[in-house]
Amino acid sequence: MPQRDRRRARVAPKEPGDGWIKPAHGKGMLRPFQPGNRFGQNARPSRYGETLALAREASPQAMRTLIDRLRDSDGRIAVVAANSILERAYGKVKEMRPEDGRKADIDLSALSNAELALLMELVASGRLRALPDPGPDAGHIEGEVQPSDETRHDS
């Protein structure tokens, strides 16, 4: 095939055939992707498997080098080596975003009157604050809390 023919745009035929099909919507022609056809990509085979095998073969020596660097006189090198070893041993530390943090959830119906009175005292003192309105699906307790004799403070 001459060089100029390979560079020409591929124009779809008007009728199905030679690998071209008419799609269900009835407009135009499509040529399905053929496994192994790397059209538009470099046709050289991938060396990923070979690279992976070489890296795994060298990993014991690489780990020994990292362990040796733990005793390096330059503290920066020792810290980088320590972090690398810990990440490989236990996995990377996940970054905690504030919105991912779990909020405290207290089931007030399971608390005794003395525990409820203590919570009310904490709220009154300002050491325990309510969050903004959580929304319509959050439950609430109606009624008054009577502090028990042990928690009542007469001023």
Major sheet attributes: none
* Shape type: flat
Tally of helical runs: 4
**Which spans of ≥5 residues are poorly predicted at pLDDT below 50?**
none
Overall pLDDT? 76
Question: What string gives the helices and strands in order?
Answer: HHHH
**Portion in helices:** 25-40%
Structural class: mainly alpha
What is the rounded distance between the termini? 102 Å
Q: Tally the beta strands.
A: 0
Rg calculated over all Cα atoms: 35 Å
User: What percent of residues are in strands?
Assistant: under 5%
What's a concise summary of this model?
With 155 residues, the protein is mainly α. It has helices at residues 3-7, 48-69, 75-90, 113-125.
Describe the structure.
By secondary structure, the chain is mainly α. The chain is 36% helix and 0% strand. The chain has 4 helices and no strands. The mean pLDDT is 76.
